[in-house]
Structure formats: C-alpha cells, structure tokens
Amino acid sequence: MKSLPAIPSLGGLLTGVRRSSRAIPKTTRVPTLAALLFFGAVAAFWFLFLGPFRSSSTTSSSVAGGHSGNGAAACDATRGEWVHDPAGARPHYTNATCAYIQDYQNCMKHGKPSLEFLQWRWLPDGGAGCELQRFDAESFFRLVRGRSILFVGDSLASSHVTSLVCTLSEAETPTRRHTAEGFEHWRFPKHDFAVSFFWTPFQVRWHLTHGPQAAVGPDRQGEVFAGPNDLHLDEPDERWMPAAKEHDYVVVSASHWFARPAVYYRRGRAVGCHGCAAKTDGNNVTALPPAYAQRAAFRTVLRALAAGHQGFKGTAILRTVAPTHYNHGGWFDGGECPSTRPFYRNQTAEMAEPEAQFYKAQVEEFRAADAEAAARVNGVRLRLLDVTGIMLRRPDGHPDRYGHGAGEHSGFDVDCLHWCLPGPIDVWNQLLLQIIAS
Length: 438
What we know:
Layout: E1 18-20, H1 33-37, H2 43-50, E2 76-84, E3 120-125, H3 137-144, E4 147-153, H4 155-168, E5 175-178, E6 183-188, E7 193-199, E8 204-208, H5 221-226, E9 229-236, E10 249-252, E11 262-266, E12 269-274, E13 279-280, E14 283-284, H6 290-306, E15 315-319, E16 348-350, H7 355-376, E17 381-385, H8 388-392, H9 427-437
Parallel strand pairs: 4-7, 4-10, 9-11, 10-15, 15-17
Antiparallel strand pairs: 1-16, 2-3, 5-6, 6-7, 8-9, 11-12, 13-14
C-alpha cells in the first residue's frame, strides 16, 4: 500500500472528542442459564471459536458481541472497559515482524514516547464468561479455509486490512499483488484464504467535480480532500460492487470523507451540496449537511448488498465509524491527542459532530437493510461490526506526533484520526472472528 500523499488544508474537518464528567450508564449483567443448556457435546467448539458469543441462526443480522435474536442470553462485546493486562494484550506483530505497516501507522518506528497503549485489552461486561478470546491465527484460518474477504473503504479500512494481514502472518506469510482496477490482494495459499482491499472514500459512484468523470485513486486523495466531489448517492460504485460476488465476506466502512465539500446527486440531478458554491451548473442547489449524504450512501450500498446486487450471496459486514480524538483544535490548528491511557470507566467521551450523526445513521440504515435481507431469504447475511464505543475510549492509540519523522510529514503533522499499528485497532480482528464464527 502507498503512503498517504500530501494533503492540502484540512483544518476544521474533525474536532475530536472531549471528556465529560457524566457517568457511564450502568449495564446489566446477562444471566448464563441459557448458555449452560448448550454446554456438552459442543463445548469444545464453543470455547475454542465462539466463547460465549453467539448469533441467532433464525435471523440474518448480528452485532459483534450483541444479543442473539432467539432470546437466548448472550454477551455484549460493545459494552465494557479497557483493562491493563500487559501479558494478555501483547501484540501479535511489531514493525520488525510485519513489513506492511505504513509510516503514518508506525508509531514504534517514529518514537512514540509511551508504549503503554499496547498494554490494554478490551474486557466486555458480563463477567468472566464474556471475555474476548485472544485472536489465534490458526483458529481463524480453520474457519475461513476456501474463502475470501473484501474490505472497501478509506485509509482506516486499509489499517484494518494491515492489522489483519500482519496478525495472520504469524501463521503464514502471504503473497501480495495490485491490479490495474485498483484492488490490492493478499493470498495465504497454505490456508486457502484471500484478503482484498479497494480504496474508496464514499462507496457510491463519485468523481472530482472539476476533474475526470471517473473516480480517482488514493494517489490523488489530496485533491479529493480539497474537493468538491460529485456524489451520486443512489448509485453503488460499480468499480468495486461487481467484485463483491466473488467474495464470501464484504466489509464496508468509510464515513469521515463525507465531511469534505461535495455536490449531491440523485437520478443524475444535483439535489444539494455541502461546502460548495450556492449554484451548480446554473441551478440553485440546497445546502445539506454531511450526514445527509453519508446516510444516503450507506442506504444505497447496504440495500444493494442485501438485495444480492449483481449476484452477491455472501455476508456483508458494516464496520461503524472509529472516532477521532483531537483536543484543543483540529488537524492544523493546534489539535493534539497526548493521552497515554484509555478513558476510565466512569468517564464519558463525547463524539464530535458529525461523527455522532454518522454512527447513528450507520446503525439505523443497517437495521433497515437487514430487515429487507431477512424478508428476501436470498442467502445474504448482514452483520454489524460495532467498534465505535470501544474505540471512543482509546484517545491514547493514535500516532499524534509520531506518525512521521522530524520534518517528514505529508499532511498529518498531528494525527488523531488514524491508529498506531500494532495498537487498539487490533481488537477489530477479534470482533471479526466472532462474526465469522457465528
């Protein structure tokens, strides 16, 4: 993967989170009686792959660690706290063992002064039976033999891919190749498993307003940041959508870019814009908030996947927004994230707007698309990989000033958007394993 190119003025895009004195609402401990009924013949498989997490086989949806639809008791991995456990949280890889880590993720290389951020593991509420199992590459490979997964999204999706590939490299070093169509592929031939990634900030059809009529690649993302871009909110991006049917799992994400200037289209006509001129092609265009476009885009993509668009018959996974943690400003106006530990349990971190709206829209559109998939019974399954609350509690996990060497940064002087690798983002693999095992 290429490093992020220089990015022009981004000040004010994202303002991060701030601490609040309000207490976190108490969560209810889940009884274990129903789980005990299943103990017995399936016990070995249960504890090896699923732990206490299980989704209902009668519904198409599942939240990673959420409640099962059949009424049985289950754990909720989205509620809990980060606990200090240097041994249990030890990284599966480092910048010395995995060559795929990019500079803006490489906090070890660039001298982040405290590596305590690597000594915390996520502990869900619900007691000892609800602990997330430590990710095991061989166990993962046994579940996915003969399968493949496609990640579609921005640089945070790329970071998830890097985290997964680096972790799986404990068991096998993959081959890697790029295609002219913009896909990046890793293959683990010994385990007959493949990981693919396609970079796109919007997932629906889009292109630069003042540029080529086709979308550009990550090598021109500086121009995409500057904008404006034309977003066709009712049309899936046909650069990657036809490839979905070739994969067993498709993970969609990407929300932050919707805060950039854009013109919004439906049925080929401009219906609104954000951060753009009051007129477009001589027609009056209504100013609309970024959350309008983000919601519409996820509605289009999720419902297309749920409908089995172009022959897709696999599992579509929506990974929710990962919050930023800028304090005292943004990317270029004094913002920073110097924290050295997670938030305490009795601290509430408030998400900045529009991130909170983005998260709300993702969950609501997921539920609507999942209801459609359940009604169709076409073999498509929808799953929600809900990381928002978990990552909101990790202001210490960003590169901050250590995503580049002295004087070497290309746009990210202080980075409180991306995540150090290894780092808190590695918990996403544990949640992904949970979903696949279900």
